[in-house]
Design brief:
Number of strands: 5
Number of helices: 3
Largest sheet: 3 strands, antiparallel
Shape: elongated
Length: about 140
């Protein structure tokens, strides 16, 4: 890569960053306190990568800057860190995914419990058969 290409890459990146900062500031001015906004985050799970919606609720204003805050993160900071924030969940939420996983786990446990009861019944029948055969031999 030549010198001119390197300068062009730096300028292009700076222009893109400046545009993102402008969008973040615009979003920060439009935030309503107490309202939940949603960002899309990529999660690496044992079942594979998955995009889930993560909530951001801006419930106070910063004393120093007056920007809406969610914990220690400003609205503009959340926009720059997580990408665009939406008014409604654009995809499955993290809470819905966890509830879905818990339900699947509960079904798996119920299936396992049924299988264990069936095995216990089989063992009891085998023990009864063995006991009956021993009584017949005597």
């Amino acid at each position: 890569m030549g010198f001119i290409d390197a300068i062009d890459d730096v300028l292009t990146t700076a222009r893109g960053r400046h545009g993102a900062q402008r969008e973040a500031a615009k979003f920060s001015r439009s935030v309503q306190l107490g309202r939940t906004y949603w960002a899309v985050a990529e999660f690496r799970l044992p079942t594979g990568g998955r995009k889930l919606a993560v909530p951001w609720t801006f419930d106070r204003k910063s004393r120093a800057t007056g920007d809406p805050m969610c914990g220690a993160v400003s609205a503009a900071g959340a926009w720059l860190r997580c990408g665009p924030l939406h008014d409604s969940p654009p995809c499955q939420t993290l809470a819905d995914y966890l509830a879905e996983c818990a339900e699947a786990d509960q079904k798996r446990r119920a299936q396992t419990d049924r299988e264990l009861r069936a095995l216990e019944d089989q063992v009891a029948r085998i023990v009864d058969l063995c006991t009956a055969r021993q009584l017949v031999r005597r």
